[in-house]
Amino acid sequence: MESYIFQYKNISIKIIEFLKDDKIQEAEELINERENILEYINKLYKSGATINENDKNELKQIDLEIYNIIYHKKKEVKFSIENLRKEKQANLIYRKKFENIFFMNKKV
Question: Which of 48, 56, 63, 78 is the most exposed place for a label (fewest CB within 10 A)?
């Protein structure tokens, strides 16, 4: 059980590093591997194995950190998409105004 918890911690730390470096593809691969280890830990736990209280707290803290990083990345992406949408709308408006001024000058 301890070796699986150790693997889980190490993979989680690597995931955090990849997420901070915006290496989403690598993080996703490790997340799948991490889920497999977590399923195995869960099976062992259900069969009667125990988890040290310190390990439980450490795992919760790591999971919370991963959640927070993903949450903030989602907010950044959402903000970027919103800014891009606003920028496109502004460009359309300014282009129309420019075209109107250009054609008015041509007529004069």
Answer: 48
pLDDT at 107: 67
∠ at Cα 38 (17, 55), nearest 5°? 75
Distance CA 16, CA 100 (A): 52
Domain tally for the chain?
Answer: 1
Please give the residue range of the domain that contains residue 49. 2-107
R_g over Cα of the chain: 25
Q: What is the pLDDT of residues 58-92, one digit of tens each?
A: 989 999 999 999 899 889 989 989 988 888 888 77
Helices 53-107 & 2-20 angle (0-180, nearest 10): 20
